[in-house]
Specification:
The protein has about 110 residues and is of the alpha/beta class. It contains two helices and seven strands. Strands 1-6-5-3-2-7-4 form a seven-stranded mixed sheet. A hairpin with a 2-residue loop joins strand 5 and strand 6. It is globular and about 40 Å long. The protein starts with a strand and ends with a strand.
């Protein structure tokens, strides 16, 4: 099993420009039909410019990052894993449904 990327490393991998109004988005892939809704959450991070004419529709999800006092869930992003807290994991499970969705995680 691959090791997880820290949030700091994630942000360094996807730096935001100070010259544009940009955000990081997480494009969630649908759950494979063969695995059902309990399948590991998979997706990829991208940076989008909010002033661009091609801004995708996205849902904003705000949650608290912090030290894990209990359960930690792993989501698969691009070629790495990222640990998230239970509330974020649960929200992503509900939001992904059966279609690919784009989310701004704050």
């Amino acid at each position: 099993m691959e090791s997880s990327t820290s949030h700091t490393t994630l942000y360094q991998s996807f730096p935001l420009s100070s010259r544009t109004k940009s955000i990081r988005i997480f494009e969630v892939q649908p759950a494979p039909a063969s695995e059902g809704e309990s399948a590991q959450i998979r997706g990829s991070f991208k940076i989008i410019d909010l002033e661009s004419e091609t801004v995708p529709n996205f849902a904003a999800l705000s949650y608290v990052c912090g030290e894990a006092d209990g359960d930690v869930y792993t989501i698969s992003r691009d070629d790495n894993n990222l640990d998230v807290l239970p509330d974020c994991h649960s929200a992503l499970q509900h939001l992904r449904k059966k279609t690919r969705r784009v989310h701004h995680l704050d």
